[in-house]
Amino acid sequence: MRDMGEWNCLYREPRLFPWLYPYGSFPQYRNLWSSPERMEDEADAKRLRELYPLMARRLAPYVEEICDEMEYPGSMMYDEYPDQLSLMRKCRQVLERAEAAEDFGEKEPDWEELRDLIGVLLLQEMMRRRKRKREKGIDTFCAR
Fold first, then answer.
1. Most CB atoms closer than 10 Å: which of 11, 19, 42, 94?
2. Domain boundaries in the chain?
Protein backbone atom coordinates (compact mmCIF):
# COMPACT_ATOMS: atom_id res chain seq x y z
CA MET A 1 0.00 0.00 0.00
CA ARG A 2 1.22 3.47 -0.79
CA ASP A 3 2.09 6.05 1.79
CA MET A 4 -0.58 8.69 2.49
CA GLY A 5 1.85 11.40 1.39
CA GLU A 6 1.56 10.13 -2.17
CA TRP A 7 -2.21 10.48 -2.08
CA ASN A 8 -2.30 14.06 -0.80
CA CYS A 9 -4.24 15.32 -3.79
CA LEU A 10 -6.91 12.65 -3.30
CA TYR A 11 -7.03 12.45 0.47
CA ARG A 12 -9.55 14.56 2.32
CA GLU A 13 -10.10 14.96 5.99
CA PRO A 14 -13.07 12.86 7.04
CA ARG A 15 -16.10 14.96 7.79
CA LEU A 16 -17.91 14.48 11.03
CA PHE A 17 -21.44 14.67 9.63
CA PRO A 18 -21.18 14.90 5.83
CA TRP A 19 -24.95 14.89 5.28
CA LEU A 20 -25.24 18.22 7.13
CA TYR A 21 -23.13 20.16 4.63
CA PRO A 22 -23.24 18.44 1.24
CA TYR A 23 -22.74 21.66 -0.78
CA GLY A 24 -20.01 23.44 1.10
CA SER A 25 -17.34 23.27 3.69
CA PHE A 26 -17.90 22.95 7.39
CA PRO A 27 -16.56 26.41 8.32
CA GLN A 28 -19.18 28.07 6.10
CA TYR A 29 -21.98 26.21 7.80
CA ARG A 30 -20.46 26.77 11.23
CA ASN A 31 -20.47 30.51 10.58
CA LEU A 32 -24.13 30.38 9.64
CA TRP A 33 -25.03 28.32 12.68
CA SER A 34 -23.20 30.68 15.00
CA SER A 35 -25.24 33.66 13.82
CA PRO A 36 -28.88 32.73 13.26
CA GLU A 37 -29.83 36.41 13.18
CA ARG A 38 -27.67 36.85 10.05
CA MET A 39 -29.44 33.90 8.43
CA GLU A 40 -32.77 35.47 9.36
CA ASP A 41 -31.69 38.84 7.92
CA GLU A 42 -30.70 37.24 4.61
CA ALA A 43 -33.98 35.34 4.37
CA ASP A 44 -35.93 38.47 5.25
CA ALA A 45 -34.12 40.52 2.62
CA LYS A 46 -34.82 37.84 0.02
CA ARG A 47 -38.54 37.81 0.87
CA LEU A 48 -38.71 41.60 0.66
CA ARG A 49 -36.91 41.65 -2.71
CA GLU A 50 -39.61 39.33 -4.03
CA LEU A 51 -42.14 42.08 -3.24
CA TYR A 52 -40.42 44.64 -5.48
CA PRO A 53 -42.50 46.09 -8.31
CA LEU A 54 -42.17 44.29 -11.63
CA MET A 55 -39.67 46.69 -13.20
CA ALA A 56 -37.44 46.60 -10.11
CA ARG A 57 -37.47 42.79 -10.14
CA ARG A 58 -36.49 42.80 -13.82
CA LEU A 59 -33.62 45.23 -13.24
CA ALA A 60 -32.28 43.68 -10.01
CA PRO A 61 -30.20 40.91 -11.69
CA TYR A 62 -28.40 43.49 -13.83
CA VAL A 63 -27.69 45.63 -10.78
CA GLU A 64 -26.25 42.58 -9.01
CA GLU A 65 -24.13 41.80 -12.08
CA ILE A 66 -22.66 45.31 -12.07
CA CYS A 67 -22.00 45.07 -8.32
CA ASP A 68 -20.28 41.70 -8.83
CA GLU A 69 -17.89 43.40 -11.23
CA MET A 70 -17.24 46.22 -8.75
CA GLU A 71 -16.50 43.89 -5.85
CA TYR A 72 -12.72 44.04 -5.63
CA PRO A 73 -10.34 45.79 -3.21
CA GLY A 74 -10.07 49.50 -3.98
CA SER A 75 -13.36 49.58 -5.87
CA MET A 76 -15.50 52.71 -5.89
CA MET A 77 -18.15 50.60 -4.15
CA TYR A 78 -16.06 50.68 -0.99
CA ASP A 79 -15.11 54.35 -1.11
CA GLU A 80 -16.18 56.28 1.95
CA TYR A 81 -17.85 58.87 -0.29
CA PRO A 82 -18.71 57.29 -3.66
CA ASP A 83 -18.62 59.64 -6.64
CA GLN A 84 -22.08 60.56 -7.91
CA LEU A 85 -20.96 60.73 -11.54
CA SER A 86 -19.51 57.21 -11.35
CA LEU A 87 -22.75 55.98 -9.83
CA MET A 88 -24.71 57.52 -12.70
CA ARG A 89 -22.39 55.77 -15.17
CA LYS A 90 -23.01 52.45 -13.44
CA CYS A 91 -26.76 53.11 -13.57
CA ARG A 92 -26.45 53.76 -17.29
CA GLN A 93 -24.57 50.46 -17.72
CA VAL A 94 -27.36 48.64 -15.89
CA LEU A 95 -29.95 50.12 -18.25
CA GLU A 96 -27.88 49.27 -21.34
CA ARG A 97 -27.48 45.65 -20.24
CA ALA A 98 -31.17 45.38 -19.42
CA GLU A 99 -32.17 46.81 -22.81
CA ALA A 100 -29.83 44.39 -24.59
CA ALA A 101 -31.09 41.31 -22.76
CA GLU A 102 -34.74 42.06 -21.95
CA ASP A 103 -37.67 42.45 -24.29
CA PHE A 104 -39.68 45.32 -22.85
CA GLY A 105 -42.14 45.31 -25.74
CA GLU A 106 -43.85 48.47 -26.97
CA LYS A 107 -43.51 50.23 -23.63
CA GLU A 108 -39.74 50.30 -23.47
CA PRO A 109 -38.84 52.72 -20.69
CA ASP A 110 -36.38 55.52 -21.33
CA TRP A 111 -33.49 56.73 -19.20
CA GLU A 112 -35.42 59.51 -17.44
CA GLU A 113 -38.09 57.08 -16.25
CA LEU A 114 -35.67 54.53 -14.80
CA ARG A 115 -32.73 56.63 -13.60
CA ASP A 116 -34.00 57.02 -10.04
CA LEU A 117 -35.17 53.42 -9.71
CA ILE A 118 -31.86 51.99 -10.91
CA GLY A 119 -29.98 54.42 -8.67
CA VAL A 120 -31.89 53.30 -5.61
CA LEU A 121 -31.42 49.62 -6.47
CA LEU A 122 -27.70 50.14 -7.04
CA LEU A 123 -27.18 52.04 -3.79
CA GLN A 124 -29.15 49.47 -1.82
CA GLU A 125 -27.13 46.58 -3.26
CA MET A 126 -23.88 48.43 -2.59
CA MET A 127 -24.91 49.06 1.00
CA ARG A 128 -25.83 45.41 1.49
CA ARG A 129 -22.43 44.27 0.19
CA ARG A 130 -20.53 46.84 2.25
CA LYS A 131 -22.39 45.72 5.37
CA ARG A 132 -21.63 42.07 4.64
CA LYS A 133 -17.91 42.83 4.25
CA ARG A 134 -17.94 44.85 7.46
CA GLU A 135 -19.54 41.96 9.35
CA LYS A 136 -16.77 39.67 8.12
CA GLY A 137 -14.25 42.07 9.61
CA ILE A 138 -12.79 43.22 6.34
CA ASP A 139 -11.91 46.89 6.10
CA THR A 140 -14.04 48.16 3.22
CA PHE A 141 -13.10 51.83 3.01
CA CYS A 142 -10.15 52.86 0.92
CA ALA A 143 -7.94 55.75 1.86
CA ARG A 144 -7.08 57.69 -1.28
1. 94
2. 23-52, 53-144
